[in-house]
Design goal:
Helix content: 40-55%
Distance between the termini: 64 Å
Protein name: protein-tyrosine-phosphatase
CATH superfamily of the largest domain: Protein tyrosine phosphatase superfamily
Strand content: 5-15%
Structural class: alpha/beta
CATH topology of the largest domain: Protein-Tyrosine Phosphatase, Chain A
CATH architecture of the largest domain: Alpha-Beta Complex
CATH class of the largest domain: Alpha Beta
Domain Tyrosine-protein phosphatase: 27-169
Shape: globular
Strand order of the largest sheet: 1-2-5-3-4
Number of helices: 9
Enzyme class: hydrolase
Largest sheet: 5 strands, mixed
Order of helices and strands: EEHHEEHEHHHHHH
GO molecular function: MAP kinase tyrosine phosphatase activity; MAP kinase tyrosine/serine/threonine phosphatase activity; protein tyrosine/threonine phosphatase activity
Keywords: Hydrolase, Protein phosphatase
């Protein structure tokens, strides 16, 4: 199961240190495939992909000409992303999420760019945010705790923070209303959504109609109550 730990600071590895070609961010399980993050070197290493049983690859780069034979990688998608602070990477988060989540049901998934530090790391971070309902900081910490050289550029950081707000707003808008919750939890009580505009006569008579359901109808008593009410 994916860990949702408290936020801790994990420093980036200096750029002079060569990053590992590939890193496992989420271990494979019986329910879902694993999620791997890495660079172009790993993407071109067919033996490594076979060893890790990776059959789906997401390329998050416009300068890498990676191609696979279908018997090696069954599913390959390319997102033409640029590693620039002013690049609109948030536009690709949903596409990346759909690819990763769809193929993790059947196989291990590998996400890469040129170095596996900024573009692909941002997309993996966005995936964790949506998949596991994590804040930006917790999702990025989880990625950096596995692959310490991860370092999205400042523009991507701002967009990931914006994406956190987008996900929160979606969660609020998709939350069931009070009436919907009551209907789901207590169907035996027959909760009904009230109309925003009710006829005046209906709103006046409603208390007496509701009482009549619980008590035998006494016509003279109800007549007296109606006269007193008016």
């Amino acid at each position: 199961m994916f860990e949702n730990n408290s936020v801790k600071y994990v420093p980036s590895v200096p750029k002079i240190v060569d990053p590992e070609p590939i890193t496992c961010i989420i271990e494979p399980s019986e329910e879902e495939g694993g999620l791997y993050l890495g660079n172009l070197e790993a993407a071109n290493n067919i033996d490594l992909l076979r060893k890790l049983k990776i059959r789906a690859v997401l390329t998050a780069s416009q300068e890498t000409a990676v191609k696979y034979q279908e018997h090696v990688v069954h599913f390959h998608e390319i997102i033409m992303a640029h590693d620039k602070a002013d690049y609109d990477i948030i536009q690709h988060f949903e596409q990346a999420y759909e690819f990763i989540d769809r193929h993790r049901k059947y196989t291990n998934v590998f996400v890469h760019c040129f170095a596996g530090i900024s573009r692909s790391a941002s997309m993996v971070t966005a995936y964790l945010m949506k998949k596991y309902n994590l804040s930006f900081e917790k999702a990025l910490w989880n990625v950096k705790s596995k692959r310490r050289q991860v370092h999205p550029n400042v523009g991507f950081i701002r967009q990931l923070q914006k994406y956190e707000t987008v996900l929160k707003n979606q969660a609020i808008s998709n939350a069931p209303s009070r009436i919907q919750y009551q209907q789901q939890q207590f169907p035996q009580y027959g909760f009904v959504q009230q109309q925003t505009q009710q006829p005046i006569q209906q709103s006046i008579l409603t208390p007496f109609i509701q009482q009549s359901v619980l008590q035998p109808w006494n016509q003279s008593q109800r007549y007296d109550e109606l006269v007193q009410y008016y």
